[in-house]
Amino acid sequence: MTAKPEQKYPLTPEVFAALEVTKRGCDELLVEADWIQKLAKSQATGIPLRIKLGLDPTAPDIHLGHTVVLNKLRQLQDLGHTVIFLIGDFTSMIGDPSGRNATRPPLTAEEIAVNAQTYYRQASMVLDPAKTEVRYNSEWCDPLGARGMIQLAARYTVAQMLERDDFTKRYRSGVPISVHEFLYPLMQGYDSVALKSDLELGGTDQKFNLLVGRELQREYGQEPQCILTMPLLVGLDGVDKMSKSKGNYIGISEPAGEMFGKLLSISDELMWDYFTLLSFRPMAEIDLMKQEVAAGRNPKDCKVLLAQEIVARFHSQAAAEKALEDFNHRAKGGVPDDIPEVNISGAPIGIANLLKAAGLAPSTSEANRNIEQNGVKIDGITVADKQLKIEAGTFVVQVGKRKFAKVTLS
């Protein structure tokens, strides 16, 4: 059974405006001509399109890199379309092998439930919860059973699976590929069938899986979804994609001041990618800022606007203004008003151990590195001696530009 050809709908200025919103910052839109017709049909009929984002809750916290696709969902949501936030509670138990050269351990049902709750709560800082359809793919995957799974598997070939780059590399290198790993893209594709998706979003590393959904919809007689891939956000180091394991990330639940400072630390060049992928400002406004910077405007002015927008989104406008005030205060050598107070016993104590105990360094080796880089101050005086012993008392300890604590040592 194949889907009947769709009639053509008029291409209005509103359709092309929606296309521009769709393509902002995207890596690839497949197939653009199909998407234009879907937009035209939606405008002509008044029926919203169904836009799907599937996320396996593999970790409980998300960072700004994860919000790139969420921002795109929100932009499309604001155009009036239906956003489906799909939690892959079933597929998480398989484990997505995308981009990996080894099998990924599956999660337990308990881990998935906890992570999914936290993930959606954080995603709701970007999405409009009242206009978001939340679904779990166990709804249709569990009832499939063994018979249904075999029938689904019959609709895709091994040769098609081996077109995926990571599978091909592993096969040629003699690295084992378990049969259950082939089921992951199949089940993700079947999600699109179950939800009758018009558009599915994902990172560039998800392209193969998104295309499987398109092919399976054809197999089931549905109009194939379009796919939209978004680039992976580069982290604070300006080199690798944002990642907790790389330590180059900005968590959306971080304190406002920490988030603000990290955003101001990105390079002037990287700032424009952040504007495109993270800001909700119109592209015309961003382009104007670029022209002004090229003509001599201080790029820091623009970076401050970006940082305030992001902090306001995940905290509040008041928090964004306070973060800017604190940043300016620190830049003049001042100390923020609301620094944490820490009580430590064991005087006298080595400076590296004090930094670790105060939560200003994750380890004594990291503390020593900060001292070597002249990044540690006590009451405004730079510490140069890694062997320094600190006697009892109360003092302000600073590490780098953003970490402060009022320490009482006894």
From TrEMBL:
InterPro entries: aa-tRNA-synth_I_CS, aa-tRNA-synth_Ic, Rossmann-like_a/b/a_fold, S4_RNA-bd, S4_RNA-bd_sf, SYY-like_C, Tyr-tRNA-ligase, Tyr-tRNA-ligase_bac-type. Signal peptide: none annotated. SMART domains: S4. GO terms for cellular component: cytosol. Residues 349-410 form the RNA-binding S4 domain. GO terms for molecular function: ATP binding; RNA binding; tyrosine-tRNA ligase activity. Keywords: Aminoacyl-tRNA synthetase, ATP-binding, Cytoplasm, Ligase, Nucleotide-binding, Protein biosynthesis, RNA-binding. Pfam families: SYY_C-terminal, tRNA-synt_1b. A motif ('KMSKS' region) lies at residues 241-245. A motif ('HIGH' region) lies at residues 57-66. Its EC number is 6.1.1.1. It comes from the Bacteria. It is found in: Cytoplasm. Its main location: cytoplasm. It catalyses: tRNA(Tyr) + L-tyrosine + ATP = L-tyrosyl-tRNA(Tyr) + AMP + diphosphate + H(+). ATP binds at K244. SUPFAM superfamilies: Alpha-L RNA-binding motif, Nucleotidylyl transferase. GO terms for biological process: tyrosyl-tRNA aminoacylation. CDD domains: S4, TyrRS_core. Catalyzes the attachment of tyrosine to tRNA(Tyr) in a two-step reaction: tyrosine is first activated by ATP to form Tyr-AMP and then transferred to the acceptor end of tRNA(Tyr). Homodimer. This is Tyrosine--tRNA ligase. It comes from Polynucleobacter duraquae. The lineage of its organism: Bacteria, Pseudomonadati, Pseudomonadota, Betaproteobacteria, Burkholderiales. The gene is tyrS.
